[in-house]
Amino acid sequence: MIFSPDGHCRPFDASAEGTWAGNGLGCVVLRRLRDALLSGDPIISVILSSAVNNDGNRKVGYTALPSQGNRRSSKRR
């Protein structure tokens, strides 16, 4: 069985055993740079560019890794 028998998984511990269900949430709030600067908000990161692509019928399914064309649509800086 994948679940911990006693309900405690103790990650990173020598007595770690199994897993346990959990919940989590993440949120990213985006604002235009100009507006953030005018408001005095802390600038943590700036998005320089973005891209969107669709592999269409050239992929096995939505869980499959993207094709070369999809990889080329994004550049690392």
From TrEMBL:
Pfam families, per the entry: ketoacyl-synt (PF00109)
Alphabetically, the GO molecular function entries are:
3-oxoacyl-[acyl-carrier-protein] synthase activity; fatty acid synthase activity
- Tell me which EC number(s) this protein carries: 2.3.1.41
Note down the stretches annotated as region Disordered. 54-77
Set out the biological process GO terms recorded for this chain's protein. Answer: DIM/DIP cell wall layer assembly; fatty acid biosynthetic process
Q: Name the top EC class.
A: transferase
Q: Which stretches make up the Beta-ketoacyl synthase-like N-terminal domain? A: 2-36
Q: Which Gene3D superfamilies match?
A: 3.40.47.10
GO CC annotation: cytoplasm; plasma membrane
Alphabetical UniProt keywords: Acyltransferase, Phosphopantetheine, Phosphoprotein, Transferase
| Keyword Lyase carried by entry | no
According to the UniProt entry, where is the signal peptide? none
Under which name does UniProt file this protein?
Answer: Polyketide synthase
Gene assigned in the entry: ppsE_2
